[in-house]
């Protein structure tokens, strides 16, 4: 499984690490992903998702059904 948020699609970003002498080396800025169990009322069960912390905050505001519909995810298969 790739390191990608299942609801928002957020993934790693390529960047430069810049030293004091201003030498630049490539680095990867990973998304802050967490495994989260979310209660799905319509399915009457828990759904385990790999979410970014930003998506977890948005999930509390919008709700699981709205976010899954935006992302085009079928929660029955999770």
Keywords:
alpha+beta, two-stranded antiparallel ribbon, 78 residues, 2 helices, Ribosomal Protein L24e, Chain: T, elongated
In short:
The protein is an alpha+beta fold.
Architecture blueprint of SSEs:
Layout lengths: L12 E6 L5 E6 L3 E8 L4 E8 H10 L1 H8 L7
Antiparallel strand pairs: 1-2, 3-4
Helix pairs in contact: 1-2
Radius of gyration, CA atoms, in whole angstroms = 16 Å
The CATH architecture classification is Roll
How many alpha or pi helices? 2
Q: On the 0-100 scale, what is the average pLDDT? A: 94
Point out poorly predicted stretches: none
Main sheet, how many strands, which sense, barrel?
2 strands, antiparallel
- CATH class category: Mainly Beta
Quickly give the structural class: alpha+beta
Tell me roughly what share of residues is in helical segments: 10-25%
Give the domain tally: 1
How far is it from the N-terminal to the C-terminal residue, by CA? Answer: 14 Å
The CATH homologous superfamily is termed Ribosomal protein L28/L24
């Amino acid at each position: 499984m790739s390191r990608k948020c299942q609801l928002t699609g957020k993934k790693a970003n390529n960047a430069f690490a810049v030293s004091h002498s201003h030498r630049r080396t490539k680095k990867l800025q990973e998304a802050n992903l967490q495994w989260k169990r979310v209660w799905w009322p319509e399915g009457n069960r828990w759904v385990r998702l790999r979410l970014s912390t930003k998506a977890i905050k948005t999930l509390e505001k919008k709700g699981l059904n709205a976010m899954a519909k935006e992302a085009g995810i079928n929660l029955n298969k999770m």
